[in-house]
Design brief:
GO terms for molecular function: ATP binding; hydrolase activity; metal ion binding; nuclease activity; RNA binding; RNA helicase activity. The protein is an alpha/beta fold. The chain has 34 helices and 26 strands.
């Protein structure tokens, strides 16, 4: 009579629907088996069990008992959220007819104390000693709704105080207790039989990494099996004698239609020269060739770090490496992470071209996804989603090289798609204790992971990156880290953490402290090795001159005589705006462009495209132009200046900025700019730095950079030497007594900030994978997410893994006759938000408010004012998926807006500014 227990229920248009518990368990078990065979990579299977058949048995057993906790009075008496009492009563009648007498009279004091995941874990511990001595299977069952329990004491607490929730009676000898226990044994025995185990003790004990993968797989299977489009409920009066073969086949095929990509079955010939030519149309350079050979020659390559100059093709080298690593590690996807949305956008078309070549070679089509908060603004990606053929019944489906899998469009499932490009946050959140973390681990453990521009991450983010590397090591996931500049201590730390995840207790860090450049550092099984012999690379000598902001206009006067495209990169938005206004006032005849982060998103995209079209490799270069910008220029844009002026900044970032100086070979540069020159602003011999620069980078790194920076730099020859000098704290500076006091204070502040960042990061950071039992801690998932971050959304998670001040992002609109519009239009849009095109255009017009409005003491008031405005004026947005809940800053017809007492003005040329600010 187990069929009397319900798993799902719903009332629709007065008709009652339900799903018996055995049917849902069977649905989930079968889907798990199909996902094991047709979705999971062999590399993931090997983490679960070396014998893939045994691993599949364990996965299907776990799915077959995952909702055993629903076979309890506490669950069966739960009221539906939206159905009438009649449905609840009819289902209770079924229970009574099945022999559960008096259940309709049962009153439980605290049914909420035994959610069905926890109840399932308790029941398993009662049913068999296997689940009492080891909590591996139990913690998966207990955690399948997002988070395992925090403390094993919860199990004994339920047994002691809430037994009635599980068995309807506290008397173990009562008939009703035995009836529920019979139901539990029947579910257990069915799961054992259907998965091929004779008894519970035959089930192998799982490692903690294996449990995490199976928890993710079970969650995925449960979500699919709980989707009523794939697996519909049945009418309350319909027969429960269901053709499960047909039901499962139909449901899985429906899911496959929303996930119509092929599993990547990588092939690699070992001939990297030919592969480079096929994929990218050129022969590999020496560094690229040796990188590919390193991966090929290694028996079990794990973490591979490539340090090489800008413009040498690290991305292409990494992608060739990905193809070889995928074969060696039996992975079937790629995650390519970058520091910013802009850099992610920039690399996305290149990844798409590479994937297209793979798809055409193999005759497959693969899922491709851009994952960050502004992906919908990327024209290349949105055009891809429009052209992608989702309907696999169509005869044209096979014409596409890749598809946009609809099932993976959700924020928690996007990382599980086959090929994902996005911000590095998507990887860092692998180390954030957050609900449904196992899904992220499932998605990333399926892939090869590539992280670019590793030098761009601070001490706080490194704490999450180090822990993510440990878990990736535990999953034997190959990782490629790319950097133009990397302190050797960071290099050794990355290698150390990855090998810790593989169970290596100690490495020889000194062997990794090489100053050579370029450099490949990699792991092979439990060893860390380096490759440092490369063909000489021709240096580009950059002359460095020093000046200050007061002389800037006079310097520009000199630099632009005879033509030239000048790049000015400063450390704050306010300084960039002030310079742009001064330059425009003095040089009205010269084209002046401004680029920073305080533009409306759509304007920033246009500005970046315009600059790339003018100053890119094949751009239509003007005779004379001045570009003023902030760090956004150093991070993402492929533009080429004839001469550059930059605020003093940490040496690795300064080198990144130099990458935009004479970036491409040109024969037509103005005579004055035939040789590259960098003018550095604010390098004070007295260690007195501008307040804005100190606020962003701190005086310590600015002082060390200024000390070691000379009158010229050879790129790439001097890169490693400079970076190691600046970041090696054992190299002291020869300073006068007065400057020593100032420098020591800077150092003390720096060390305090770094230590504070590390401490804060550990608050919600995941612990290291537990590969062996320790005192007080088993190798199960109990306590895995203890002290969980309460961040519920993807955006909040992104913020959690970056140590940045809270910011407030709004949709920036302006009033017009009849309502409101965007800054790109004069037509009222307020009456047309039911149009997806209009709503999307409004949603795209986002901007971050000035930091002045998001300080700890006033951010709540800022948000409250914006929320009140929404409730009063924008409630119609509740009907739009694009706009619902979005905060809005409404500017007047003169582009002015006041929020929380702060007056702002928006200008298409200068961006957002605070009025009256000095």
């Amino acid at each position: 009579m187990l069929e009397a227990l319900w798993a799902k229920k719903e009332e629709k248009d007065g008709v009652f629907f339900w799903l018996p518990l055995p049917v849902h368990l069977e649905d989930t078990k079968r889907i798990t088996g199909l996902l094991w065979e047709h979705w999971l990579s062999d590399g993931q299977k090997a983490v679960v069990a070396k014998d893939f058949d045994a691993g599949k048995q364990i996965a299907m057993f776990t799915a077959g008992i995952h909702d055993i906790g629903k076979a309890t009075p506490a669950f069966q008496l739960k009221k539906g959220f939206s159905n009438s009492k009649d449905l609840d009563n009819e289902l209770t009648d079924k229970l009574i007819k099945a022999g559960l007498t008096d259940i309709d009279k049962l009153i439980l004091a605290a049914p909420e104390k035994t959610p069905h995941g926890l109840a399932g874990e308790v029941i398993l511990s009662i049913l068999d000693e296997r689940f009492c001595t080891d909590n591996d299977i139990g913690s998966i069952v207990g955690g399948h709704h997002g988070r395992p329990i925090d403390d094993i004491g919860k199990i004994s607490e339920v047994k002691k105080s809430y037994k009635k929730n599980i068995f309807q009676s506290e008397d173990e000898n009562s008939d009703i207790y035995k009836k529920w226990l019979m139901f539990h044994r029947e579910i257990l025995n069915t799961a054992l039989k259907n998965s091929g185990f004779e008894k519970c003790s035959d089930i192998p004990i799982l490692s903690q990494p294996a449990q995490a993968i199976l928890l993710g797989l079970l969650t995925m299977a449960d979500w699919i099996a709980s989707n009523t489009y794939f697996f519909p409920l049945i009418g309350l009066d319909e027969s429960t004698d269901i053709d499960m073969d047909k039901r499962c086949k139909t449901g899985f095929n429906k899911w496959k239609k929303s996930n119509s990509s092929d599993i990547w079955n990588p092939e690699y010939s070992g001939d990297s020269n030919t592969l480079f030519k096929d994929r990218f149309g050129f022969e590999p350079r020496d560094v690229q060739s040796k990188f590919a050979k390193t991966v090929t020659d290694a028996k079990n390559p794990g973490l591979v770090i490539l340090e090489a100059p800008m413009g040498l093709g690290k991305t292409e080298a990494a992608l060739i490496g990905v193809e070889e690593l995928a074969v060696k590690s039996n992975r079937s996807g790629l995650f390519f992470g970058l520091p910013t949305q802009a850099t992610s956008n920039g690399i996305f078309p290149r990844i798409a071209d590479w994937l297209k070549g793979i798809s055409e070679d193999l005759g497959e089509k693969h899922g491709l996804r851009l994952v960050h908060g502004k992906a919908y603004l990327n024209d290349f990606y949105t055009n891809l989603t429009k052209s992608s053929n989702i309907d696999i019944d169509s005869g044209k489906a096979k014409e596409e090289s890749f598809v946009i899998n609809q099932w993976f469009c959700g924020k928690k499932t996007a990382i599980m798609d086959d090929f994902v490009v996005g911000t590095v946050d998507q990887l860092l959140m692998m180390a954030l204790r957050q609900k449904h973390l196992a899904l992220r681990h499932l998605g990333l453990s399926k892939k090869i992971v590539v992280i670019d521009e590793v030098h761009a991450y601070d001490a706080y983010m490194d704490q999450y990156l180090n822990m993510a590397l440990e878990w990736l090591g535990a999953y034997n996931v190959p990782v490629i880290l790319l950097s133009a500049t990397l302190p050797k201590k960071s290099r050794a730390d990355f290698i150390n953490h990855y090998l810790m995840g593989k169970g290596v207790k100690k490495i020889d860090k000194e062997s990794l402290m090489a100053d050579d450049y370029p450099l490949i550092t990699y792991t092979d099984n439990d060893k860390a090795l380096i490759i440092k012999d490369f063909a000489p690379i021709e240096d580009k000598s950059i002359e460095i001159k020093y000046t200050d902001s007061e002389n800037l206009l006079k310097l520009l006067d000199f630099l632009t005589v005879g033509g030239g495209n000048v790049g000015i990169i400063v450390n704050t938005v306010k300084k960039a705006q002030d310079i742009a206004k001064s330059v425009l006032s003095k040089f009205g005849d010269i084209s002046v462009k401004l680029l920073h982060s305080s533009f409306i998103a759509t304007d920033r995209v246009k500005n970046e495209k315009e600059l790339t079209d003018l100053l890119g490799k094949t751009g239509d270069r003007p005779e004379k132009m001045i570009v003023v910008g902030t760090q956004v220029i150093e991070q993402s844009l492929d533009i080429d200046f004839d001469v550059m002026i930059s605020d003093i900044a940490p040496v690795d970032l300064l080198i990144q900025r130099m990458g935009r100086l004479h970036r491409h070979k040109r024969d037509n540069r103005p005579d004055k700019h035939k040789k590259p020159v960098l003018y550095v602003l604010g390098n004070s011999k007295e260690l007195e730095f501008e307040s804005g620069s100190k606020a962003v980078y701190g005086g310590y790194l600015l002082a060390r950079t200024g000390y070691f920076l000379k009158d010229s730099i050879d790129l790439p020859g001097d890169i490693s030497k400079l970076v190691q000098e600046v970041y090696d704290e054992n190299i002291d500076l020869d300073l006068s007594d007065d400057l020593r006091v100032k420098y020591d204070n800077y150092k003390k502040d720096y060390e305090g900030i770094v230590n504070s960042k590390k401490d804060r990061a550990t608050s919600y950071r995941l612990e290291s994978p537990r590969l062996k039992k320790r005192i007080g801690k088993g190798t199960d998932l109990i306590g895995w997410l203890k002290n969980e971050s309460l961040t519920s959304s993807e955006e909040e998670g992104n913020s959690q893994v970056r140590d940045t001040q809270d910011t407030v992002e709004v949709i920036a609109l302006k009033r017009c006759t009849g309502g409101y519009t965007t800054f790109d239009s004069n037509e009222d849009m307020s009456q047309y938000i039911d149009s997806e095109a209009v709503a999307k255009k409004l949603a795209s017009s986002t901007i971050k408010l000035p930091n002045k409005l998001s300080k700890s003491y006033n951010i709540d008031k800022t948000i409250k004012e914006l929320e009140d405005f929404y409730i009063k004026n924008l409630k119609s947005w509740d009907n739009s998926v694009w706009l619902k809940g979005s905060l809005c800053a409404m500017f007047d017809e003169d582009n002015r807006c006041r929020i929380n007492g702060v007056d702002m003005v928006y200008d298409k040329k200068y961006g957002l500014d605070i009025e009256g600010r000095k």
